[in-house]
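Design job #97: recover the sequence.
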């Protein structure tokens, strides 16, 4: 892969990451993502273009607003850098193809919904339902699915159904066992979207990987006394992490069994 193409992919990701931050902040607050222009959340003064350069402006301003010196959340440069890296990795993994475009859009949706879920414990339907439509619409270009185009569409649809019904069953079982909500409806719908992109096998390994990473996160929080055992944690980010792994390199259940 040409080094310059990867560089441009990274820069594009950084720039688009700035827009993702707008979505992360405004969507859960029911604000327009198009208007008004970006402003400081503290003093409400509009942010000039030279103070809105991904990563660079944050470093130059030492993470503070130029006007009121209010602290700028670390989420902004983190999302920008993460989006840049993931965009670069997608182009490196799949080259310049239709599937690259599909994965990049899916990755951006997963970044947005993960950040929102971390802060608000919700997953907006526009992303989970959008991923379902996105995965089915472009199933014909999915390199993980085999067969003719209509067979790939059926595989994608089957993955979406598996994600929806399978995770719904797990959620209901968990609620019955633990006597409280184990997974929210947003997680269930998200897995339907993931299934449309990675198929039924990817659904299984995504849930396994998400459970593993989520458990580690919960244990760390409990050890540091930031959470109690009974406290809920957002599961969407860990489902998204498992989905990202499967998007870049599909892990089938047999692989996990071999490792075990």
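Job complete. Output follows.
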């Amino acid at each position: 892969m040409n080094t310059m193409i990867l560089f441009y992919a990274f820069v594009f990701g950084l720039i688009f990451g700035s827009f993702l931050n707008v979505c992360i902040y405004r969507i859960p607050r029911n604000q327009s993502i198009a208007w008004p222009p970006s402003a400081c959340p503290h003093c409400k003064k509009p942010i000039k273009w030279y103070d809105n350069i991904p990563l660079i402006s944050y470093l130059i301003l030492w993470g503070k607003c130029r006007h009121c010196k209010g602290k700028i959340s670390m989420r902004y440069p983190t999302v920008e850098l993460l989006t840049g890296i993931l965009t670069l990795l997608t182009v490196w993994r799949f080259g310049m193809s239709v599937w690259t475009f599909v994965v990049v859009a899916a990755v951006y949706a997963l970044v947005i919904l993960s950040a929102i879920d971390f802060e608000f414990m919700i997953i907006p339907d526009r992303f989970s339902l959008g991923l379902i439509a996105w995965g089915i619409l472009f199933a014909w270009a999915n390199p993980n699915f085999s067969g003719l185009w209509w067979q790939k569409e059926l595989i994608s649809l089957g993955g979406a159904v598996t994600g929806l019904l399978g995770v719904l069953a797990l959620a209901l079982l968990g609620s019955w066992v633990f006597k409280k909500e184990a997974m929210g409806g947003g997680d269930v719908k998200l897995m339907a979207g993931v299934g449309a992109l990675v198929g039924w096998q990817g659904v299984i390994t995504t849930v396994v990987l998400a459970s593993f990473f989520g458990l580690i996160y919960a244990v760390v929080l409990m050890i540091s006394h930031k959470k109690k055992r009974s406290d809920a944690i957002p599961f969407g980010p860990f489902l998204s992490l498992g989905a990202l792994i499967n998007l870049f390199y599909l892990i089938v259940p047999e692989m996990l069994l071999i490792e075990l």
